[in-house]
Amino acid sequence: MEPDEGNQVSVRLASLRDAQRIAAxxxxxxxxxxxxxxxxxxxxxxxxxxxAAYVAELSSGHVVGWVHVHRRRLIQTDAxxxxxxxxxxxxxxxxxxxxxxQAEQWAREKVCWAVHVRSxxxxxxxxxxxxxxxxxxxxxxxxxxxxxxxHRNKDIPCNPEPAL
Length: 164
Hints:
alpha+beta, Aminopeptidase, 6-stranded mixed β-sheet, 6 strands, globular, disordered C terminus
């Protein structure tokens, strides 16, 4: 825990009630998300031992960040951060560090040998943050994507859940 303008910050597992705030935080980085879709994704993450999502919450109950970490099933077992977002009004206050420490602890418990993070080339502040907390740049690469359903909304999951 670290103080944040009079509030204590704690990190806990994300729950369905966090979906609206998680969606809003995604939008701050330019990734539109809808509460219902975030809820579906959180349900899947919660049911999969190779995934975990955590939120940073002020003592007032306001969620100010989240991290998603997952185990990669490759020849070597390691973990990857699928996403990290801290509210733009709360950055540089130690919240990102707390979330990353939680992700690293989860990876240790899963016996992963390393944690990987990918960051868009334009996010210079994020690069500096990761280097400050001990990550080192190991390569530069291009990411390619081929749409398998070009007329389909990119935010629809591959295996949509049945209507509840």
